[in-house]
Write a structure and sequence with these properties.
Shape: rod-shaped
Helix content: 55-70%
Largest sheet: 5 strands, antiparallel
Number of helices: 10
């Protein structure tokens, strides 16, 4: 079934049904023929039984040399028989009944009182009443040509005609020797006709039943074909639906697998970015200058495999001043990319740009950068606007979560840079304060030492000795300065 197409399967079942129907129809036809043959055999046996009874009756008569019966108005002597009567002692007329005359009388009686017809006949009858009709002549000629055959039968209209041959035997010669009869020859035949009323009813019934069974077989064959075609179509349609469903499920599984892989890759990708965020934040805590922060943050971001180039710069006096980049050689953005960076500063919004010209100018020459997108994130440093540009070779560019994290990184870098500016300002103020304080102290020292030449330089020397002793004790610079 798996290797058969739907049409071939349907044709196979139709062929099986047709062959089965043919066998059944053949069986019905064969049964009808057998029944007809059996009915004909029954008719033949029935006629043969009548024939045998008549032959036995004739034989009994012949063996007794004929019989005599009292004459009556219905029984006449056989005019074609010599010595056909005699008188009894009491002078009563006795008529001789030989086998032929007995057959004639029984036939007349049967033909009158029943539907069965008897007749003794011959091609050369002595009695004209025994002249053969067309069937009888046909049968007698058949016996004449086929000496070994004793019976001949034929269906005619509403009766079954049967003819049995009459052979001359020794007892027949007692009466017919002078008529030229010879022992063993066929001198005539005994006809028996049986009505076909019951036979025809049975045949009609079997015909009706056979026709009914034939119609039933044809009907159920057509119905079976229709049902088989319907179920096969249903089965194959279901198989196609299951196949389509399986393919759909496979596609869904593949798509889901792809989605999960993409989600996994995306998660892994974002984890790497998040790791960079942590590294940059850790770096910010250890950086102590604006350029150090820029350098370290870009170096950390450049560790990402898909970040091909990173650049940051400050914009003032209508031009960019490069702060740091991820390549060692001097480089600057070409005009197209420079305009995008400037737009990010002017709008103070992050701008993602799809790269058309995949190059950046390095010392008046172009160097290809295998990147598909760049992101331009603006920031402020000491009241001056700057931008950090990051190039990626990711096919779909920057992810939404990635953009948020990068913006947060740049914001933290900006805060750290500005914090360093404030720190340097505060540190300068503290140094100025300490310097003023030291100058004031030294001024007081000079005033004191000018009053006593013996102690002149004492304060300076004490400070120097204190410093030397602290160094020998390996104290920290802050402690030494404090002492």
């Amino acid at each position: 079934m798996k290797n058969l197409t739907k049409n071939n399967t349907i044709l196979l079942f139709i062929l099986i049904i047709i062959i089965t129907a043919i066998f059944v129809l053949f069986g019905i036809s064969n049964f009808k023929k057998q029944y007809t043959t059996l009915s004909e055999e029954i008719l033949f046996k029935e006629a043969s039984a009548h024939y045998d009874n008549m032959i036995n009756t004739r034989l009994w008569n012949s063996n007794h040399g004929g019989v005599y019966v009292l004459a009556n108005k219905d029984l006449k002597p056989n005019p074609y028989l010599k010595d056909n009567h005699l008188y009894s002692k009491d002078d009563k007329l006795l008529i001789k009944i030989n086998p032929a005359w007995m057959t004639k009388q029984i036939s007349i009686l049967s033909n009158k009182n029943s539907n069965y017809f008897y007749k003794i006949t011959s091609l050369n009858p002595i009695n004209p009443d025994n002249k053969a009709d067309s069937f009888e002549e046909e049968a007698l000629k058949f016996f004449d040509k086929n000496k070994e055959q004793r019976f001949y039968s034929k269906f005619e209209d509403d009766k079954f005609n049967f003819m049995g041959s009459l052979l001359v035997n020794q007892s027949c010669l007692k009466c017919h020797a002078q008529q030229g009869y010879k022992l063993g020859e066929v001198r005539g035949g005994l006809r028996i006709s049986i009505p076909l009323g019951s036979y025809n009813q049975n045949i009609d019934l079997i015909e009706e039943n056979s026709s009914l069974f034939i119609y039933i077989v044809i009907f159920f064959s057509i119905l079976s074909i229709a049902v088989i075609v319907y179920f096969i179509n249903t089965i194959y349609n279901k198989q196609n639906e299951i196949k389509i469903l399986n393919n759909t499920l496979e596609d869904k599984v593949k798509n889901r697998t792809t989605q999960l892989n993409n989600m996994y890759e995306n998660e892994k990708y974002l984890k790497d970015v998040l790791k960079l965020v942590a590294n940059v934040n850790e770096m910010l805590l250890k950086s102590d200058s604006f350029r150090t922060i820029a350098k370290n943050s870009i170096d950390r971001l450049a560790q990402h495999k898909q970040y091909k180039f990173i650049w940051t710069g400050l914009y003032y006096e209508n031009h960019f001043e490069q702060v740091y980049k991820s390549h060692n050689s001097n480089a600057f953005l070409n005009d197209e990319l420079s305009q995008v960076a400037l737009e990010a500063i002017n709008t103070k919004k992050t701008i993602i740009h799809k790269i058309k010209k995949k190059n950046i100018e390095f010392n008046r020459r172009s160097e290809d950068i295998e990147a598909s997108y760049n992101i331009n994130i603006p920031y402020s440093y000491n009241k001056v606007m700057g931008v950090m540009t990051i190039y990626t070779d990711a096919k779909d560019g920057f992810k939404k979560e990635e953009i948020n994290m990068l913006e947060q990184i740049i914001n933290d870098v900006s805060i750290s840079m500005n914090a360093q500016v404030h720190k340097q300002t505060i540190l300068k103020m503290e140094n100025d304060k300490i310097a003023n304080y030291e100058e004031t102290i030294l001024a007081f020292v000079n005033i004191i030492e000018q009053r006593d030449t013996y102690t002149a330089g004492h304060t300076i020397r004490v400070a120097q000795y204190c410093k030397l002793i602290a160094k020998e004790l390996k104290l920290k610079d802050a402690e030494i300065k404090k002492l």
